[in-house]
Specification:
Elements lengths: L1 H18 L3 H22 L7 E6 L10 E6 L3 E8 L2 E7 L5 E7 L11 E6 L4 E5 L5 E11 L2 E2 L3 E8 L4 E6 L8 E4 L4 E3 L1 E4 L2 E6 L5 E7 L2 E3 L6 E3 L3 E5 L2 E3 L12 E8 L8 H15 L3 E10 L30 H13 L4 E10 L3 E9 L3 E8 L13 E9 L3 E9 L6 H19 L3 E7 L7 H6 L8 E3 H5 L21 E6 L4 E9 L19 E8 L2
Parallel strand pairs: 11-19, 21-22, 27-28
Antiparallel strand pairs: 1-2, 3-4, 4-7, 5-6, 5-8, 8-9, 8-10, 11-15, 12-13, 12-16, 14-15, 16-17, 16-18, 19-20, 21-32, 22-24, 23-24, 25-26, 26-27, 28-30, 29-30, 31-32
Length: 546
Amino acid sequence: MMKLLTGFLIKINIIGKNKVNDLGDYMLNKLFIFFIFFCILLISCQPENGTTTITQIDSIDTTTTTTTTIYTLSKVKNLSIERGSGFLKLSWLKENYDSVKIYYSTTPDNANKDQGIFLIDLTSDTSYKHTGLQYGTFYYYSLYTVLNTQYSEPANINNLTLNRSMKKINFYDELNWGSVNINTHEGISSQMDNIGNGWFAFATDELEEIIFNFKNNSSYLPAEGKFFRTSFDEIWVKNGIIYSYDPDSGVNPTDELCIISVNLHTYQEDNAETKLNKVTDVIAKIKPDFVCFQECGQHKDATVSTDDRAPYQTGIDKIKVGTKEKETNMVYLISKRLFETYNLNYNYYWSWAHYGWNVWEEGVAILTPHKIEKYENRYISTADTTSSIDSRKAVFIQADVPNIGKVNIFSAHTSWGALQPGQYDKLREFMKEKEIETSPVASIVGGDFNGDAGTDGYKRITSFTGGERLMDSYYIANNGGFNDSTMMGDSHNGISRIDYIFYNYKNKIIPKTAQVYFLPLPQDSDYLGSLVSDHNGVIVRMKVVK
């Protein structure tokens, strides 16, 4: 197009030279042509979404070519956050700009350079720690890059709260201790109040986050040296599960989603079938809205199931035989046990990406009690053959959740190392495409991301680099839980946290409670579900604000 337009202008210029006799008219004609050419140049240099372009004219005359310098400002790269008691730290990468300006507000609509509170102007710095924040208050930030006094589009952070309000913990005494002490990680012990029907309670307004366990004489729950964690106003702990409501009330919140994510380790565990049953029993107890599975496989030579429950299996993938899974398919077996043992109808969608250990068709799945209205699977890796372990998929479903609306859920299992950035970006591209197509209330992904919290991969997916920013629900629910572990069976201060439940930053979601589950405890206690894989699971409860 530019070549055609330029050629057209040259022809006009030649005609002008031949037909214009007066020198002044010729010069005006020349300037007019230059003006049109310059406008076309500006149009051709317009930036992509989210950028600002500044054009600097170095010289203009009728005999020489115009010199033009184009600067492109982008949103702050690799924007990440860290928060603690009374502070929030923002970090980013330094690029081609003069400074970063930060504005904030306690209301989202005012968090911009025109209405927000100007916080600071930083030139060479790549981080800023905002201290003295008020507890129980939401803070919304906009960060701008500035070059030659021109502002970029803002990078926004929202839905983060520092929650130092009155905290109340309710504990159900399933062991009939009769009296219960609550112990904090810092070594503070307090007797809980007996409030009847097996429940005990403790309240404090001294802590933003409580890391705690329960004790009677020499007995501990979950175990000595093992702790629960919460930043939410009030929780109930029963049989090792954290609830955001009284589980004995018979009234569940109508504005809340419960989501579980766990890597099943594709039959590589000792007593794999027993552990699969444990996963099923926990699902029956919690009754989540969605369960995201990774390393969820079936044996390539297994017999095809003739189970009459086939109609409950939603979605037909190319690896299915007709409408039926193979008898060893892990999500099929969980769904089958939920129906036969607990009379719970859970639909699922499953797809596999590659062979594990050369015999297991290994994939990802989503399980839900809600009707699956849409579904799709997609490779998010460059590799797309079943023979490559680097072939990685995400599966998608949409379900209409009562009282909440249409929710998009994804389950993903990404590679590690250098392959991560591309897969993270493809995943967010998949999520974005489905958001545009289906207009959901929320867009959520659970998965094994093979990247520790705080590493480059984590910073990428929780920033605007490569796609829309995803929010780490576990960290937002637990202010001090950034370095908790979901790998190798340890609870806190373990090896790594690589299993996440993320949601789109634009969603009106408030994570209420989150816990690491399926943990090994002394004396083979199953109070926290016990170990079912080389990964722990993650359980998150989140409020959806319409």
